[in-house]
Structure formats: C-alpha cells, structure tokens
Amino acid sequence: MPDSIQSQSPxxxxxxxIDRLRRSGRVSWARWCPSPNFxxxxxxxxxxxxxxxxxxxxxxxFGGDAIERFFCNSLDACEHPYFETIAGMKxxxxxxxxxxxxxxxxxxxxxxxxxxxxxCFQGEDECNDFSIGIELEGADDIPYTPEQYQSLAALSxxxxxxxxxxxxxxxxxxxxxxxxxxxxxxxAFDWAHYHQQLLxxxxxxxxxx
Length: 209
Ligand SMILES: [Zn+2]
Prior knowledge:
two-stranded antiparallel sheet, alpha/beta, Lysozyme-like
C-alpha cells in the first residue's frame, strides 16, 4: 500500500508531499495507524492552528505500543494500574512523534481528531474544529530528543505549506489553549529550538495569514 510507506527520516517538503497532504490529509512518510476516534470538521472550518502535545503510557515510560492502542481503543486496562483510569476514553491525535523521530499518523489532517478537548485559542473555542494535533512521546519535564524536534519541524513545515493560515504564531501548546487543565508539552519543550528548526526549513512566517 503506497499509504503505508515509511522511512526513517522525514522527507523534505516537496510540492508532491504538500499536494498529497492537502488532497488526502496523509503525511507520505508517516506510518498509518487509523484511529476510529475522529469526525468531520465543521463545513466552514479552516485548518489554521497546530497544537503540540505530549503523551507517554504509562506516564514517563517510553517505547512499546500502548499509545497506539490507546488511540485505537484497544488498550488493555489490566495491563497497568494507570491504564484502568484511561482505558474507556475515546481520544486521538492526528500524529505521534516517537522518541526516535518516527511519525505515526492516526487521523487524516482533513478530519477532526479528538485531541484538544475544551479549549480556546485567541477567542475561538473548540480548537479541534480547526486544528491539527501532534503528540510528542514524552513528559513535561523530560527533554525531548533531537530527532523529535526534527520530525516535528518537518511535519509543521509541511502543514504550514499545505494550509498557509498556520503561521508560527498559530502553533501553540495544549497548555496554552486549555490553561489550568492541561500542562503539555511542558517546560521541557524548547520553543526557541523548535522555532530555529522551522527557520532552518524556511517555515518561519510569523505574521498571521
Ligand atoms: Zn495534550
């Protein structure tokens, strides 16, 4: 299946990969692991925000496939005491960047993933309607890996090319759109370093589109 092609390092932002993303919502170099937890975006929704999250299952432990099973509603609650508390939740993100930088995609960027919950960005509620949610495998206080910054920047640059309303000013953390409720991606996420990586990819537009 052409949709399942995966490679170790993100492909550059070619016009073919931008076109493909705009048309199919799929990132050509991501592993496709479809989640049932999504719906259509509202008719007039303009994809115009990127939300950075973190997740690790169990919290603070990396590796394994628990995140994938969680987003696909097949997490075994008996496997870990923490899983009992979340096993019934139906959530997703568009993509997950693993510690080694590999990207797993769960929901087409054209669809509405269930990642932000109750949220508000600059007066606009329901961020799931108009945002792309990217999870980093990680925890608030554990440094992210260089490979994760690289892949996140590549994913962001691709999304910014496909939907130019996503400018640098419209890339935010879950903590910023759900303050008091969410803390991810946490103080460990180095926004300045991430912005440098975007700059290196030529995706540094800071003005709202
Ligand atoms: Zn989050």
